[in-house]
Design goal:
The complex is a heterodimer of chains A (564) and B (382). By secondary structure, chain A is α+β, with helices and mostly antiparallel strands. Helix content of chain A is 52%, strand content 15%. The longest helix of chain A has 30 residues, at 409-438. Chain A is elongated and about 100 Å long. Chain A starts with a helix and ends with a helix. Chain B folds into 2 domains: 11-36 and 202-372, Multidrug efflux transporter AcrB transmembrane fold (Up-down Bundle); 41-109 and 135-199, no CATH class. Chain B has 12 helices and 4 strands, in the order ααβαββαααβαααααα. Chain B has a 4-stranded antiparallel β-sheet with strand order 2-3-1-4. In chain B, strand 2 (68-76) and strand 3 (79-86) form a beta hairpin. The model of chain B is unreliable at 369-382 (pLDDT under 50). Classes of the chains: A alpha+beta (564), B alpha+beta (382).
């Protein structure tokens, strides 16, 4: 048995004090910096795990396990446990890419889908990449209309619209999508990036007419510009931004915003919250039925009462980005305003405003960044954004919609409740099996405690990402797996001969080998396949043995070797 | 819980049991049903107040043009859950293929179209455009025909128009199919709520292809690892044979008890490889790399440990199985059923097959491979 003295000495060792001090700091960091809670947790987990593996001291092993359990409990408390729609209810639509893509293309696709979803007011939509050839689009509620909207959004292209001075200059249908290309560097003439495109005959005519005499005017480029809408903004959004060289007055900013929203036949009137709360005098008329407003705005009830369909947008989407110059006031522009679908606003150069139809155009611009490398990266990003915008938000690879999963929220909660009960029950029954076999409390108790510790750790680790049905099944299985290795250790120690250390060595030899093989058997499924439906399960079945090997088995060995 | 030492008498006869089981399993394996994941089709899950007559529903659906591969009616706390699996619709598969071919080609054609303009209607550009356009028009017309629309692709002036028409038509075909299906179902079954799980042809093919890749990679990696660890042919082969036998019996059980092959049960089979090797490695290490007692005693000793391990795993999967029968969550059901079958099979495969091979090998002149330190163990343990 471990004597009190040994316990006391072990606890006072430098390494142990260091581990606990580190744990406390990590917990405090998680509590203070909630935005980075998950990375902090994972990194500290790895650090303590490494300490256990390399220091190879019994007190460190036990202290390390305690520290990791503590970290995990804190992570569950502060970072929370994320459940998939199987447990929280909702709809999941997998988007399958025709071919695997690299990580930059993947990011680009995710952000394109997000942008388009946001421009439809579908802000609750979660978009996350899965492996290299799949994207999950998840909705927190199973409203059939909403699901349909998202499916349409994914399967159809967006509508591109280029507006000059309140008139449509370029329509998406005018542009040949096959001919939108990046401008090669030798033709850039001083700019950092450029995208060229060609238009149809009708398009060329339209552009020539509309842009005539509008040199230096901004070409407002919209993707899925809301129709029949008004937009209500918080006054603070017009506050002078630090980016502009010359301070922009609030009234001038509002003037620019209003002019950006002008469009013949479908103006989008811009209202200030302060104006409306003083004197609410607007009502939807025949063709102004939607009101775009920042979510949480105090005016929402009033707008609803007045009969508007309220479209709530996040603060980021409502933010306006101005470009402003002292020389010519016609070129002042809002360069991006996601809530209104406005994504870019290049200025027209004089040569395209002479009224002569031309079939090809190019948009060029400067890149930002401190180093040449950063600037090149920024240029590439801007080119890709523009390319995607001109293509109507088209994704760079072909996609197909996968099988949709619908889980009503109450059912999901019931699943979760039953699954947690099932897990507790499994722990109980497994304990019973162990108890029947060994019949010694000193062996049974540590075994069960360590199994529980492992479940807590897995819950925190998997819950930092997403626990779906398959991950839950994997966690349940892990209860059995986690006692398995402890059974090997115990049986080895129960043997009469040799000294304890040697017996432990042998036991760990067997465990290491079998963990290695179990992990190897599962790795291809986890890493290569991209079969998301079961990746949670694969992760749980790999994580369980690994946690055991590096963290809990050494601690269990340290505890029970003193019993023999 | 004392079990007599199996290996005392003529242990070689024990091998009959696993061989017999493998033979029976090989007979049942072809009967494994592929789930929607691998076969493609539509799985409709409905919540109803009353149970339905599965055979009648199946026939009624078939008469309306929906070939049904299975109907299940299960009781749950809220009434009944009816699961209907409808086979893949050929025209949907075709439409998906057409759409893909169309979009693969259309950007190129759009480029030719703009070339016609920028080159001032050069004959070469016009010919190129006409040729490309003919191909995409072909795809589009066939798609329009599936949607029962007029075949008028060539009348769309620009490729942009044609593209819009094709996207809209494809969407219409998909929507039309699920709308018609749910309308038909609501006529036949008074359901309270329903969810549709559609797996298209390309998706199921992709699943199958990925699953095959995973099997190949896992097999190769595991074999390499086993040979590296044991470094002698017979024990390594014994371990692998034990695992293969386990998986074969588990698959036989899938065929016998009608557990469908889905992504979940596929993952469970892979997990079984790990579990099965767990006990195989325990046995082989204890018997071959140790020297206390006789090999038969060591084997018996290992069996006590291994059986306890299998029991612990078995009870946790039985819990999952009970949970599955309460919630009717297919993922739980498939994983737990496969795991239970596999763990039972593992008892047979490890202790009646693998053990026999290893003992026979040792007692007939095989080397005990000296008690060398197992691979990698020096890194992980003190």
């Amino acid at each position: 048995m471990i004597s009190k003295e040994e316990l006391f000495q072990g606890a006072r060792a430098r390494e142990v004090v260091a581990i606990f001090a580190f744990t406390l700091i990590a917990c405090a960091a998680m509590a203070l910096d909630k935005a980075h809670g998950v990375p902090i947790y994972i990194v500290s987990l790895l650090i303590v795990g490494a300490a256990i593996s390399f220091l190879k001291k019994d007190n460190v092993r036990i202290a390390g396990l305690l520290a990791i359990v503590l970290l995990s409990l804190f992570s569950i408390g502060f970072n929370g446990v994320k459940f998939g729609i199987d447990f929280s209810g909702g709809v999941r639509i997998p988007v399958l890419l025709e071919k695997p893509v690299d990580s930059t293309t993947m990011e680009e696709m995710v952000s394109t889908i997000k942008t388009r979803a946001a421009s439809f007011g579908l802000t609750e939509v979660k978009v996350r990449p899965i492996g290299d050839s799949e994207i999950y689009v998840e909705l927190p509620q199973s409203n059939p209309q909403l699901v349909k909207d998202v499916e349409n959004l994914l399967s159809q292209q967006g509508v591109y619209l280029g507006v000059v001075d309140g008139k449509v200059a370029v329509k998406g249908d005018d542009i040949y999508s096959g001919n939108i290309v990046r401008v090669q560097s030798q033709y850039l003439r001083g700019a950092d990036w450029g995208v060229s495109f060609s238009v149809t005959q009708a398009g060329a005519q339209r552009f020539a007419t509309v842009a005539k005499g509008k040199a230096n005017y901004p070409l407002y480029m919209f993707l899925d510009r809301p129709t029949n809408a008004i937009i209500v903004i918080n006054d603070s959004l017009l506050a002078p931004s630090t980016k502009t060289v010359v301070p922009l007055s609030k009234s001038r900013a509002l003037e620019i915003a209003r002019s950006a929203m002008r469009l013949e036949g479908d103006d989008m009137p811009v209202y200030l919250e302060s104006e409306l709360s003083r004197n609410f005098s607007i009502a939807p008329d025949e063709n102004k039925t939607k009101a775009i407003v920042q979510s949480g705005s105090p005016l929402i009830p009033q707008l609803r009462a007045a009969g508007f369909v309220v479209v709530e947008k996040s603060k980021e989407d409502m933010a306006l980005d101005f470009s402003f110059s002292a020389e010519s006031s016609v070129s002042d522009a809002v360069v991006s305003w996601k809530a209104a679908g406005l994504l870019s606003a290049p200025r027209l150069v004089a040569s395209v405003t002479e009224g002569i139809p031309s079939f090809s155009y190019s948009i060029t611009g400067p890149a930002q960044g401190d180093s040449a490398q950063e600037r090149a990266k920024d240029a590439l990003r801007k080119e890709k954004e523009l390319e995607s915008l001109l293509k109507g938000g088209a994704l760079p690879v072909q996609i197909n919609l996968g099988s949709k999963t619908v889980v009503p929220a109450p059912l999901g909660e019931e699943f979760l409740r039953l699954s947690l009960i099932g897990m507790a029950f499994a722990l109980l029954v497994v304990s019973l099996v162990v108890a029947l076999r060994y019949r010694h409390l000193q062996i049974i108790l540590p075994m069960i405690c360590i199994s529980m510790a492992e479940i807590i750790i897995m819950m925190a680790v998997l819950g930092s990402f997403t626990i779906d049905l398959s991950a839950m099944a994997g966690m349940l299985a892990a209860i059995g797996v986690s006692v398995d290795a402890q059974i090997i250790v115990t049986d080895e120690l129960l043997k009469k001969d040799e000294d304890v250390k040697k017996k432990l060595d042998k036991a760990f030899g067997i465990i290491t080998t079998s963990v290695l093989i179990a992990v190897i058997a599962m790795l291809p499924l986890m890493l290569l396949s991209g079969l998301v439906e079961v990746i949670g399960f694969a992760t749980a079945t790999v994580l369980g043995p690994l946690l055991g090997l590096f963290i809990s088995r050494p601690a269990y060995g340290a505890i029970v070797e003193r019993l023999f | 819980m004392e079990v007599p030492n199996l290996y005392k008498g003529n242990y070689k006869l024990l091998i009959i049991v696993p061989l017999l089981l493998v033979a029976i399993s090989l007979f049942y394996i072809p009967q494994i049903k592929k789930g929607v994941d691998f076969k493609g089709g539509t799985l409709v899950t409905m919540q109803t107040a009353e149970g339905v007559d599965a055979a009648a529903l199946s026939q009624a659906l078939a008469e309306k043009g929906y070939p049904v591969s299975s109907v299940k009616s299960l009781q749950n706390p809220k009434g009944y859950e009816v699961e209907v699996e409808i086979e893949r619709d050929d025209s949907l598969t075709r439409a998906e293929g057409l759409k893909t071919s169309f979009f693969e080609k259309i950007d190129e054609v759009s480029r030719y179209e703009s070339d016609v303009q920028t080159t001032n209607q050069s004959a070469e550009a016009i010919a190129k455009y006409a040729e490309g356009r003919q191909e995409v028009d072909g795809y589009a017309d066939e798609l329009f025909a599936i949607a029962l629309l007029q075949k008028n692709a060539s009348r769309h002036q620009s490729t942009n128009d044609l593209k819009n028409a094709v996207s809209a038509t494809y969407r219409m075909i998909l929507d039309g199919y699920s709308e018609k299906l749910s309308a038909t179902l609501s006529e036949l079954v008074p359901y309270e709520s329903a969810s549709f799980n559609e797996v298209s042809a390309s998706l199921s093919e992709k699943f199958l292809e990925k699953a095959m890749n995973v099997v190949i990679y896992s097999t190769i990696l595991v074999s390499i690892a086993v040979f590296l660890i044991f470094r002698t042919a017979v024990p390594s082969l014994a371990v692998l044979v034990g695992a293969a036998c386990d998986v074969i019996i588990a698959m036989g059980a899938m065929g016998l008890f009608g557990i469908p092959l889905t992504l979940a049960s596929f993952a469970a089979l892979l997990m079984l490889v790990g579990f099965s090797l767990d006990t195989d490695v325990l046995l082989t290490m204890r018997v071959i790399k140790r020297r206390e007692g006789t090999p038969r005693e060591r084997a018996y000793d290992a069996m006590k440990t291994g059986a306890t391990m299998s029991m612990a795993l078995l009870v946790s999967f039985i819990c999952l199985f009970i949970l599955a029968s309460l919630t009717h969550i297919n993922t739980y059901y498939e994983i737990s059923a496969v795991a239970i079958a596999g763990l039972l099979a593992d008892l047979v495969a490890t202790w009646l097959l693998n053990a026999v091979i290893v003992l026979y090998y040792l007692e007939n002149g095989g080397s005990t491979g000296e008690a060398q330190k197992p691979f990698l163990s020096s890194i992980f343990s003190g």
